[in-house]
Every structure is written in structure tokens, then in C-alpha cells.
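Entry for the shared binder. Reason: the reviewer on the internal report wants the predicted structure included alongside the sequence.
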Amino acid sequence: MCALRFFYTNTLHKQVEIDRIPMPRHEHKLPVILSRDEVKALLEAPRNLGHRAILATMYAAGLRISEVAALKVRDLDGDRHTITVRGGKGRKDRQVMLPDQLRERLAAFWKWKHPADWLFPGDIPGQPVSSRTIFRAGSVIEFVAQVVLARRVFTCAPTPPKGAER
């Protein structure tokens, strides 16, 4: 629509009634909702403990890739069960919940890696893990998710109602 409006008004110098041009229809698809077992399988799919911790943090706290990459150790408040996200979308700070299961997973990661400043340090000393590294790890998870979903579609038989004979 914007391209047509620009073409007519700026190139042809003609006024066009936009209301007369039909708008394209958009597909509205429902999201795929995973079961608890499928979510557990996805969170345990990465072999690297760091990737597991990053993925669990993104899932449990609802963080974006750039937000989880920019987390510092001081942003975690175990006493108040919160994570402070600094400079998120729109450069806004916010606080999100820190679930107990995520806290345990991050504690295991901390014992393994001992991060000093950045929660998820990168390969370059003093720098956080890059968003690209997280994205690449996420691509592996996406592939595993597709496999899990394909298995669910092809192997799940419909559950008969209670009292029905098999």
C-alpha cells in the first residue's frame, strides 16, 4: 500500500483514494504450544552448560537475545527473586521474576564458569557473549524443536474419551 501511494503521489503526481484499493489479507495462525515434556527436552537439548543456562534464562524470564547477552552478575537478585534488565527494548529498564528452577540452573553455571562481571562472558575477556553466538545456539535448538514437533505430529495417537474401549 505504501509503495503504491508513494508511486502515485511522488512519481506520477496524482492523488489516489487509498480507501478504494483493497488491502491484502494476512494469515492469522495460532502459535504452537509445547507440552511440559517437550519444553523440558528443548531446554536440555544443548550439550553446552552455558547454552543451556542462556536458553533457560531466555525461556524462564522471557528475555530477548540482546537482553540475556547484556546481563551482568549484579543484575541477579536472589533475595528478591528478580532479574534487572538494563537497556532493553526501547532502552527501558525493567525487572522480571527469577524462578527457583532458573536460579538453581544459574548457580550450577556460576560454579562451572565463575563469571565476574558479565553473567555470560564471551570469548574476548571483559566482553559479554555475542548475540550472534546465542542466535547460532538457538538455531540448533530450533532444529531440535522441529524434530520434536514432527515426532509429536506423526506419533501421537488421539486419546480416546474416558470409558471408551480400545
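Summary line for the report: The first strand starts at residue 76 and ends at 77.
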